[in-house]
Amino acid sequence: MMDDTQIELLPDGERQIQPESTALSQNAAVVYLSSLPSERSRRVMRESLNIVAQMLSGGRADLLTLQWHAVGFQHTAAVRALLIERYSPATVNRMLSALRGTLKAAWRLGQISANDYQKARDIENVKGETLPAGRELVTGEIYALVMACKADTRDGKMTAAGTRDAAIIGVLYMCGLRRAEIVSLDFGDMDMASGKLSVRSGKGRKGRTVYVREGALRALQAWLMIRGDDPGALFMPVLKNDRVARRRMTSQAIYNLLQKRATEAGVSDFSPHDLRRTFVSDLLDRGADIALVAKLAGHQDVKTTARYDRRPEESKRRAAELLHFPF
Known about the structure:
Elements: E1 7-9, E2 15-17, H1 28-34, H2 39-57, H3 73-86, H4 89-108, H5 114-121, H6 139-150, E3 153-154, E4 157-158, H7 160-175, H8 179-184, E5 190-191, E6 196-199, E7 208-211, H9 214-227, H10 251-265, H11 272-285, H12 290-297, H13 302-306, H14 311-320
């Protein structure tokens, strides 16, 4: 561990760690980030570690230059206290998770002892519930989005883009897929006879099976009539001349098409994840077992699914309506 010659005192009395230049292969933060399963996870945790590094160095170091092997319990405890002042419990816990992961990498690299590692990582998560960001879409909004897709016509027929977008919206809502999951789907992942869809690139590299039914299945069938049955990505870009480009879409393209259809439909802004949120909430509202919903959504912990449960709030609303105020 470091000695007092390697640290300074911040104006508020907190200690900071001086930056240093370290080979990337020996940088604990880089090693930790490379172990994460998806680019999105790496991006989110990279941002978290940069914030932590700036806190520890008074803004003079980032995740690449901080001496992670020099971080001790006094530093992790101070970081936790500062994070609590500035961020929500969920965000604090995510940043602490990134910090613990980096310290573990430093221990595995032989840069800190097991005893120092255990002391430094011995910080508790922050308790507290925050409502999930975003919103749920109501039935009328989903209907309006589909109508906007159907209104996208050429020579009296739905365009390839309109047909594809309706299918994507249907799968996002009916199956609760993440953006990264839907762009990773291949033609062979779909069994049209049963409606079974195999999600092989789920979060944490965990696959699952979902089912496309009713209107979503009809929309998908219409898209496949245009796409054809060649191997490759299930959903593909559509060019301005309405021809299908034989390549995989990007996550950003999914976001962009939803924004386009929302504008056309007069629907308030929403994110792709809001359709997933609506999928979870609507299933719970209709009495689906929460453990089953967690499996369909690919949640590792049923507590994550419970955060989208609107039934307690609906019960509160009904309870309030039992009272009468004579004004």
